[in-house]
Amino acid sequence: MTSFVSHTSIDCRDAYALSEWWKHLLGYTDVPGDPNEPGHEECMVLDPETGHSILFIEVPEEKSGKNRVHLDLRPRSGTQAEEVERLLSLGAAEVADRRGIHGPGTGWVVLADPEGNEFCILTSEAELAARRQ
Length: 133
What we know:
Layout: E1 8-12, H1 15-26, E2 29-30, E3 42-46, E4 53-58, E5 71-73, H2 80-89, E6 93-97, E7 109-112, E8 118-121, H3 125-132
Parallel strand pairs: 1-4, 5-8
Antiparallel strand pairs: 2-3, 3-4, 6-7, 7-8
């Protein structure tokens, strides 16, 4: 017997605002028939391609310290550098740049969402394929 991941949960102060930010960042949508609205204490967004969902849950405390679990994101199109620039323009903050950590074309960039939750931007599939050639 095994388990599977039902959804990913993110604690936050404003579930609606953060779900809207991530929804725009990832190209996710509201769950059909269950739209997120201001004031909702729990807001779920859904990837229309894969079915993955993220649940934003309001909690009273501020984030403190480094995340113990985080999302690793790979650009659906374009390059890692282009995606980092896009996300910075949406309000993400750069935490650490680990590009090239294992040689040219390797590594990741650590960013944080508006509430300080860290996530990483990896190289795209196209960049990985080009490196293999």
